[in-house]
Amino acid sequence: MSYIPCDIDFNFKGFSFHQEKCRKGCGFYGNPIWHGYCSRCWIQQRQKSQTHPLTDGFRHHTAILKVKPEQRRNEDLWKIPDTARNVTSNDGFPHSHITYRSLPVADSPGSLSLLTFPCLHALAQGDFSDFLKALRRPDAQNLMTHCTRFIQKLQDTEILTLDDKGEQVQEFYSTIGSLYPDHMTEEREKLLNNIEKLVMTRLYKSVFCLDGSQDEQKDLCFQAQIRSLVWVTPKMLQLSLHESNKEANDLVLSAVTTLVEIDSKRAPQDKLACVSKASNFIFKAISVSKIEPATADDFLSYLIFTILKANPPRLLSNIQYITRFCNPKRLVSGKDGYCFTSFVSSFVFINF
Amino acid sequence: MAAGGAAAAAGASRTYSFKVVLLGEGCVGKTSLVLRYCENKFNDKHITTLQASFLTKKLNIGGKRVNLAIWDTAGQERFHALGPIYYRDSNGAILVYDITDEDSFQKVKNWVKELRKMLGNEICLCIVGNKVDLEKERHVSIQEAEAYAESVGAKHYHTSAKQNKGIEELFLDLCKRMIETAQVDERAKGNGPSQSGAARRGVQIVDDEPQAQSVGGCCSG
To answer: InterPro entries, from UniProt (chain A) (predicted)?
Structure first.
């Protein structure tokens, strides 16, 4: 059963900014503050974007997309793909033949750089519903259009592998993340989390465990394997869990339920939150069955036991989905990162 | 690999976020060490934390703010192969052995080899001989341990979690070294503090393909 671990991509793609030459390929060096362009190309680019704020960066692409800005403002965000399809049939916009070729995400820095400071600030306030409200602000239209186009584009392409799509999504996050200056780290993370939720909820169906894919087979295979390990007892894993300790057993049961819930969530951060929640139940379970604080050995053993009992549906697909599409910062740092790392470790351990 | 400290400039002062992994065999006192450091407690009934597997500590070293995340790793032999999943992207590693237990020192040597192979020289290594309060039962000679540490480019420390000896120094020293490494890294990227404009994309959590492959390769049992 060694093939499954090999297939997990542990490569948390992140913010990668090593672009040196100008993105326009003029031969001069580019600069991150000019979105990777050299000074001259950036000025040209900006002039273009000032004359055509909404279409900047898209004009030289090839697929047809017609946008009527007035209409966009009133759109219900949750209907993005449908409305995005509708707008293609609308006319009346001056640049009715805006074309775009498999849209490299970072290709529209012009339109995004028009986002104002107060707007960026407003987008990073409050919870997700506040974010959606802020996204309807007139000055946030560029961001919304950017997201809509990106979602549309990823849904339309069929040639890309899921890994490629993951990379594009990560690139998309980092483009948006780069809008914030350094001292606004908190706001940046908040906005990125909201963007992640927005984009991934829409994309979920087109990137998660597609019907008839190999992943589906592997998931089934893995589930069968866990089922065959039903005879494993806490003692075999050297857990301090005793049948008589009702409180601890209840907590483990709560952890089991939470792990099963992972599959029902759509956004990577919500799936990740389930892993953390389950981990907290496990830590509590350890604390009621043992005097000393839980060590990594305790935690991992309990987590393995919990996974065996939960047999979470589509486990491999869920792990891959989180690693590909989650805001990478959450995966490698903080308690969420630790819990997820342990979760992946447990998964690998069971597969040995 | 650009794991060199996710440093974000906040005005004049900077905040560094470092990940440190804690490696070592089962009974060498890893947990006591880190609990002593973060909670200043040892075998205490009043330890408030539920767990000692993931702890954080905020430091201010000469005006530089450091967020330290300490990741405990499973030390049992059966979990050995899972190591790479934990120590990927870490800035520092604390390898703990028990001075009364020769085997635990051998284990540290194995970890060092593995870390150097997987992460190269970018990771700051600390080899820690714990339980110096049991000096009478010492089985690992000081000379041997220090010579070994030097030969692999690691620093060696003597600690006692029980008597609270050498622990502050260990972490402080490690943080300073990690800041240095992160600064060298930044300078190499031309991303230094002087160019505040270029530093606006300061958060770097990039991982490269070779490492991912090596992790995969290791996990295929």
So the answer is: DUF5601 (IPR041545), VPS9 (IPR003123), Vps9-like (IPR045046), VPS9_dom_sf (IPR037191), Znf_A20 (IPR002653)
Beta carbons within 8 Å of A65's beta carbon, 6+ residues apart: A58, A87, A88, A98, A99, A100, A149, A152
ipTM over 0.90: no
> Which residue of B1, B38, B41, B54 to mutate against A (max A Cβ within 10 Å)?
B54
Residues 60-99 of B with CB under 8 A from A: 69, 71-76, 78-79, 81-82, 85-86, 88-89
Q: Is A5 on the interface with B (CB under 8 A)?
A: yes
| Dihedral angle, C-alpha B192, B197, B203, B206, nearest 10 ° | -80
What is the Cα–Cα distance from A170 to A175, expressed in whole angstroms?
9
- The domain locations on chain A are 57-207, 215-350
The better pLDDT of the pair B191, A147 is held by: A147
Task: Say what the pLDDT of residue A98 is.
Answer: 35
Low-confidence ranges of chain A (pLDDT < 70): 1-20, 31-35, 48-114
Q: Mark yes or no for CB contact A329/B203 under 8 Å.
A: yes
Q: Which residues on chain A are in Cβ contact (under 8 Å) with B73?
A: 296
* Among the listed residues A174, A166, A173, the one whose alpha carbon sits nearest the alpha carbon of residue A208: A166
Q: What is the mean pLDDT of residues B90-109?
A: 94
Which whole number is the average pLDDT over B194-213?
Answer: 35
Q: Give the integer Cα–Cα distance in Å for A216 and A207.
A: 12
pLDDT at B132: 92
Q: Is the separation of the CB atoms in B155 and B126 below 8 Å?
A: yes
Tell me which residue in A11, A283, A284 faces B212 most closely, judged by beta carbons. A11
Nearest CB to A12; choose among B10, B199, B207: B207
Subunit contact B82:A2, Cβ cutoff 8 A: no
* pLDDT, average across residues B31-48: 81
The CA distance from B89 to B76, in Å, is: 22
For helices A268-289 and A246-261, angle between their N-to-C axes, nearest 10 degrees: 170
User: Between β-strands B13-24 and B92-98, what pairing exists: parallel, antiparallel or unpaired?
Assistant: parallel
What is the predicted pLDDT for the residue at A256? 96
Chain A, nearest residue to B81 by Cα: A349
pTM, full prediction: 0.73
Contact B26 A348 (CB under 8 A): no
A57-207: CATH topology: Serum Albumin; Chain A, Domain 1 (1.10.246)
pLDDT value of residue B62: 87
